[in-house]
């Protein structure tokens, strides 16, 4: 049996495993191991299985995930998410749809300490949905903005998506973090414009809230300033070359821990919760990375990526057209696969093509994450939608999916702008101090 046939059979088996709801890391490991065994025999396969987990376990860069997740958990239990929402509400809550816009700003702020879309959606949903319900916001707008705002968690650094992409492609984590800042701000702005347009067409779906005086705004901003300061220290330290990304994660975790103590939220129960949640999240990501590093060497020896690159080259299509086809493929995959699964499945195949066509790998990483954000709110899988449904129990699932359609369109606009103006993502990495 030829290596290419073995590779195709293993890919087919991998998709079957995933559709059977087998965890992605295990599915990757099993499919890669069986394929490797078929081509290279038992001894070589056992050697691979014995070395990969050890090599991953002492990968210095992987610790950044645990540290940033811990930072996000400290921020969550210390009430910083509510402070962010309160600040955003004090500034924009009096606009039409202002509470929805405040939710988007709060999600963006919390994304800067959590790096997780699901955590951002859960945390901000619990804070903002009761408020929007109190002011008679239409459930479609309320739930849609929470689900969409939560997706900012994998675009605005520290992004777990960027870390996984960097590990798979050996690109710079620091450059990817900086590349995500301006697109994250852009997408936040596009979400707020979407809310403005929706409420202009039908003001009843998002009534304006009360306007706070300057003293109330000052109190809200001062309350949230500590968390904003931590974000500035972490990202500013990376940009100025003061910290490596791992060091920045450690500094951020320490500062949020100190802030938790200062606010009187530190006790054995909260510390235990933060540590256990961090271990759970890190273990999930760790398993996916191990599975990917087992599957990817197997995929390389099947020559599937090289054969696909040769096939695409023979099509004589312009690189931009090929890129559009790749993006369309990602959008389709996002309707039935989880974002991390899509990334680890496709990067070994797609990344060599992107590099060969002359596209910047840092820019493509940002574009890929934006497209994967769309998968988080795309039916029928849309993980963020299911998270919001768990909070807004009285809102039908179909209503939530209808609510995210305008925000999905805003993400598509963001992706198009990144393709047309790649410097949106590249200007900060190109000017960072190394």
List the defining traits of the structure above.
434 residues; 20 helices; mainly alpha
Task: Give a description of the structure.
α3 (63-77) packs across α5, α6 packs across α18 (383-391) and α13 (268-301) packs across α16. The relative contact order is 0.15. With 434 residues, the protein is mainly α. The longest helix is centred in the N-terminal third of the chain and has 34 residues, at 24-57. It has one domain. The model has no long low-confidence stretch (mean pLDDT 87). Helices cover 79% and strands 0% of the residues.
Our Rg estimate from Cα atoms comes to 22 Å
> How many strands in all?
0
Number of domains: 1
- Output the helix-strand order: HHHHHHHHHHHHHHHHHHHH
Largest sheet: none
Q: List the uncertain runs.
A: none
Strand content: under 5%
Approximate helicity band? over 70%
Shape designation = globular
The average pLDDT is: 87
Kindly name the structural category: mainly alpha
Distance between the termini: 49 Å
């Amino acid at each position: 049996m030829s290596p290419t046939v073995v590779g195709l059979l293993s890919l087919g088996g991998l998709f079957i495993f995933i559709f059977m709801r087998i965890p992605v890391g295990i599915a990757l490991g099993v499919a890669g191991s069986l394929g490797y065994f078929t081509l290279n025999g038992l001894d070589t396969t056992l050697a691979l299985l014995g070395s990969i987990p050890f090599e991953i376990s002492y990968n210095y860069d992987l610790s950044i995930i645990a540290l940033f997740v811990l930072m996000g958990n400290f921020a969550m239990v210390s009430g910083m998410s509510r402070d962010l929402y309160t600040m955003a509400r004090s500034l924009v809550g009096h606009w039409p749809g202002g509470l929805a816009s405040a939710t988007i700003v709060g999600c963006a702020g919390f994304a800067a300490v959590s790096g997780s879309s699901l955590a951002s959606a859960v945390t901000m949903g619990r804070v903002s949905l009761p408020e929007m319900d109190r002011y008679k916001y239409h459930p479609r707008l309320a739930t849609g903005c929470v689900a969409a705002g939560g997706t900012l968690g994998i675009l605005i650094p520290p992004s777990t998506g960027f870390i996984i992409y960097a590990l798979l492609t050996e690109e710079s984590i620091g450059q990817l973090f900086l590349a995500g800042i301006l697109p994250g701000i852009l997408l936040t702005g596009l979400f707020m414009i979407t809310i403005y347009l929706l409420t202009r067409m039908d003001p009843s779906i998002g009534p304006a809230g009360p306007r706070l005086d300057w003293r109330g705004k000052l109190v809200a901003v001062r309350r949230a300033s500590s968390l904003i300061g931590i974000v500035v220290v972490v990202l500013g330290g990376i940009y100025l070359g003061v910290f490596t990304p791992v060091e920045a994660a450690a500094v951020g975790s320490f500062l949020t821990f100190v802030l938790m103590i200062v606010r009187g939220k530190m006790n054995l129960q909260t510390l235990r919760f933060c540590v256990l949640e961090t271990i759970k999240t890190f273990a999930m990501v760790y398993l996916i990375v191990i599975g990917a590093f087992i599957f990817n060497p197997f995929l390389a020896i099947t020559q599937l990526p090289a054969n696909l690159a040769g096939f695409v080259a023979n099509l004589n299509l312009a690189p931009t057209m090929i890129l559009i086809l790749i993006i369309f493929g990602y959008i389709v995959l996002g309707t039935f696969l989880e974002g991390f699964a899509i990334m680890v499945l496709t990067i070994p195949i797609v990344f060599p093509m992107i590099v060969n066509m002359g596209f910047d790998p840092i820019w493509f990483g940002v574009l890929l994450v934006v497209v994967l954000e769309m998968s988080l709110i795309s039916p029928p899988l849309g993980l963020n939608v299911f998270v919001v449904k768990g909070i807004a129990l009285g809102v039908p699932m179909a209503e939530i999916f209808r609510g995210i359609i305008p925000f999905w369109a805003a993400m598509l606009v963001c992706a198009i702008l990144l393709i047309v103006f790649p410097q949106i993502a590249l200007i900060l990495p190109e000017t960072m101090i190394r």
